[in-house]
Structure formats: structure tokens, C-alpha cells
Amino acid sequence: MATFFSLALYAGSFTFILREGGIPFYYLGVFFAIAVILYLIFNSLSREYVGRAGDAIIVPVSILMVAVAFVLVYISQSIPIISVSVALFTVSLIMFYNSTVRNEVSISTNERIFMGGAGLGGFIGLIVAGVFPGKMSVLDSYMAIIMLAVGLAAVFVFFRRPTGRFSIADAFHVFVRPFNSMEKIRTIEKKLLLLAVSLDEIFVWIAIGASFPFVISAGLGSGMSRPAVMFSVAAAIIIGAALVYVFESSNIPATPFFYPVKDLILVAGLLLLSFMYPASYVAGMIFLALLPVAFIGSVRFLKSQFPSSFDFRQITSFFRNPIMVIAPLMGSILWAVSGAMLFLTAMAFAIFALVIGIIVITNPKIFKVSDPYETANN
């Protein structure tokens, strides 16, 4: 909860940090691309390290890195310093997540607790960012002191001797693993479905990657005050986290309905944001709050379509990962032209994804799609 309080405060204040430093908002896409690149590099490495060596020092180090990230944006609101701060914050969050959620026996239980803490911590962090009367850089300095204290306390709570070793060979294994998984495509019967899923993800992540870095700046562009924007985003986060918690705790069947519904929600949310009015902005954020649970439902359905030994996400990541880097840069170019154009262009890609989703579930024989709910009842 404390970590996601800091994440929400950092991300929520980030747009205003750029404004304080006189940096144009179109740089948001550049900073987001930096974060994505570091995520793609360190996520698998961090998970492999935790799996082999344990989380002996990962948790306290990650929290202390957050403190340093806050200190940097307080010291200077310049592009080089902010870039280093973004890098530190991204890597620290990856390390923390893989140490506290992905390394335990009951991952699903940890993820529900994780979402509860993330939702509540994120909600409070955005509210604080909204009501704070001074500069965001000053608020970040206070947060740096808090996270420094939490990190030093975590040294005594979490530090243990490593339970194993992590070598260069292990790191090499992490990076070649996705290429090895490509060989499994030949054994998959539903190749056409896999192609459709890959195309769907390309269009979805172009839409998300291009538009989401500019969500807060869109609120400001709609004429809303800083508190109003922060409250709107905070409401979306708490709604989304609550829905995910309920969905993950339930036995809702993985029906084909979930596959295109994520695309429909994305289309509606981006369309509302493109109007650049306060009322449409709030409505758009409420729609986008439904997106996380729709994504989980979609993944749950797709998992039911492939053998348990086949991770389709390793295949689709070959197409998704480059898009996640390129799309924010495209968003920067579009934002420099017009905020409305950015969200309408992103919506167009979401529509392409929606069309693919509808084609797939309306042609189950062609794509060899089965309804696991109906199969279980029969």
C-alpha cells in the first residue's frame, strides 16, 4: 500500500513536475518509452533472480531506490535528471512486485492482496497530490523522506541471506527463453486464433501506449483544475482495483464475451477523452476503470483455448513489446499536434482490435474457439 501510494503520487505529480520545469507535455511519451524499455529488460531478470536467489535484499533496495527517485525530481526538473528518476522508479517497482507477489506459492492470493493495496494506496496518493497546496516537487521531497525511512526499516525486516545464486548464464537463459517458446507454435492447433490474438494485441497496445501517458494532461487540457483531475483519476483507480479484486475472488466463467469487451471499453473511453471537456473526461475515466477487469477476463478466456503447457503471451509478446516502446513516441508526436487527434487516432486502433475480437467470437468454427462455460455444463 505504501509503495503504491508513492507510485500514484509520483505518476500523478509527474505531469505537474514537467510543467514546473517548463518541459512540454509531449515529452511524457518519451519518458513513458524509457520506462517501458527498462520494464522489458528488468522484469524477467528480476523474476529469475528472485526465483533463484530469493528476495534477500530486493525489497529494501527497491524502496530506497524510490526515495532516490523522489529526491532527484526535487533537486532538478530538467530532462536528464527526470530521465534518471524515471529509470530508478521503474526498476524499483519491478523489483518490488517480483519480490512480494511473484515469488510465493499462492500467487493468486498475493495478487488479490496486491490489488487491494495498490487500489487503496493509489487512491490515497492521488488524493494527496490533488489537495497539496504547493509545488509538486516539494511534495516529492516529503515523500522521499518517508520512503527513505520505510526502506531503512525494511532492511531489518526483509533482509535474509540469499537462498541461491544468480549467474550470467541465468541471465542469458532469460533472454533466449522467448525464442525457445516460438518452436511450440508448430504444435498448436489454433494457429489462426493465435494470429488474431497477436493482431488484437498490436492494435490494443498502440492505442494504450499512445494515449495513456497523456491522461492527466488531457484533464488539464479539458480545463479542469489539478484537484479535479486527481480526484477523477483516483476514483477510476479505486473502482478498477475493487472490480479486479471481486473478479479474482469469484468463479466467473471465462466466456468468449470477455475477448472483445476490453476493446469496446477502450474505444468508448478514448472517444470520451477526445472531446476534451470536463464531463466527458470524467466519464472517460470511469469507462477506462473497467479495462483491467476486462483484460483479466480476456486472458482467462484465451488461456482456456490453448493447452496449459503453452503460454500464448510469450508468443504475442514478440509483437507487443516493440509496440509498447514505439506507441508512446507516436503519442508524443500526436499530442504536439492536438490532444483530440491523439485520442481519436488511438481510438481508431482500438476499433481495429474490436473488429478482430468480434470476428473471432462470431466465427468459432473458423478460429476453433470453444466456450469453456458451455463445455463444462455439457
TrEMBL record:
Print the keywords alphabetically.
Membrane, Transmembrane, Transmembrane helix
Matches recorded under InterPro entries: MFS_trans_sf (IPR036259)
Membrane-spanning segments: 25-45, 57-75, 81-101, 113-133, 139-159, 192-216, 228-247, 259-277, 283-302, 318-337, 343-361
State what protein this is by name.
Hypothetical membrane protein
Native organism is Thermoplasma acidophilum (strain ATCC 25905 / DSM 1728 / JCM 9062 / NBRC 15155 / AMRC-C165)
Query: Taxonomic lineage of this organism?
Result: Archaea, Methanobacteriati, Thermoplasmatota, Thermoplasmata, Thermoplasmatales
